[in-house]
Amino acid sequence: MNNVELAESWQPYLNDEFVKPYFKELSAFVKREYDTQVCYPPKNQLLEAFNLCDFNNVKVVIIGQDPYHGEGQAHGLCFSVNEEIKHPPSLINIFKEIETDLQIPYPKSGNLVRWAKQGVLLLNATLSVRAHEAGSHQKKGWEKFTDAVIAEISENKENVVFLLWGGYAKKKGAKVNKSKHCVLESGHPSPLSANRGYWFGNKHFSKANNYLKSKGLAVVRW
């Protein structure tokens, strides 16, 4: 996509998408937006989730909706922010749940590259956004592409944990084959949902690790 190359391990599964009409339209739209507007993440990090998490290593998939749209926040991984960036509310609640679930101290850094490198695919449904305009790149084709990503993982792998937080992620993960994968669902970690009791106490991080362990797979160091 406009000189942004997909990581090699993903190419056999996703190269077919790039020649489809919807993806050509999406590429043209994204190029136009990045040429004329301030957009996030930086263009060279549009496919960063795939660069940092090899297809063969995927063991957990977390589905987000849109990249953060503030300056310096988004870097291609859902819920993650660059070093030294203040933690957004949803990320704070994710770390708080990990703290109580696994008795792990709250981390200083909100950069989740450390998760991605262990096989956690941090996938936003839409991979780009215009600065300060949430949802501005939705319904342009990204959702179709990320549906294909989820379908390929479901079909070609087994024993992957899908963490579906909130109604949007649950819809996105509806086609995952539950007979060969573990699907964990809860409310979204955003304050609106979390403060109503739909997030805290879901224990998704220990449940994910227990499942991985039961399949003889290495657990994630959250």
TrEMBL record:
<feature type="domain" description="Uracil-DNA glycosylase-like">
    <location>
        <begin position="51"/>
        <end position="212"/>
    </location>
</feature>
<protein>
    <recommendedName>
        <fullName>Uracil-DNA glycosylase</fullName>
        <ecNumber>3.2.2.27</ecNumber>
    </recommendedName>
</protein>
<dbReference type="Pfam" id="PF03167">
    <property type="entry name" value="UDG"/>
</dbReference>
<comment type="similarity">
    <text>Belongs to the uracil-DNA glycosylase (UDG) superfamily. UNG family.</text>
</comment>
<keyword id="KW-0227">DNA damage</keyword>
<comment type="function">
    <text>Excises uracil residues from the DNA which can arise as a result of misincorporation of dUMP residues by DNA polymerase or due to deamination of cytosine.</text>
</comment>
<keyword id="KW-0234">DNA repair</keyword>
<dbReference type="GO" id="GO:0097510">
    <property type="term" value="P:base-excision repair, AP site formation via deaminated base removal"/>
</dbReference>
<dbReference type="InterPro" id="IPR036895">
    <property type="entry name" value="Uracil-DNA_glycosylase-like_sf"/>
</dbReference>
<dbReference type="InterPro" id="IPR005122">
    <property type="entry name" value="Uracil-DNA_glycosylase-like"/>
</dbReference>
<keyword id="KW-0963">Cytoplasm</keyword>
<dbReference type="GO" id="GO:0004844">
    <property type="term" value="F:uracil DNA N-glycosylase activity"/>
</dbReference>
<dbReference type="GO" id="GO:0005737">
    <property type="term" value="C:cytoplasm"/>
</dbReference>
<feature type="active site" description="Proton acceptor">
    <location>
        <position position="66"/>
    </location>
</feature>
<dbReference type="InterPro" id="IPR018085">
    <property type="entry name" value="Ura-DNA_Glyclase_AS"/>
</dbReference>
<keyword id="KW-0378">Hydrolase</keyword>
<dbReference type="InterPro" id="IPR002043">
    <property type="entry name" value="UDG_fam1"/>
</dbReference>
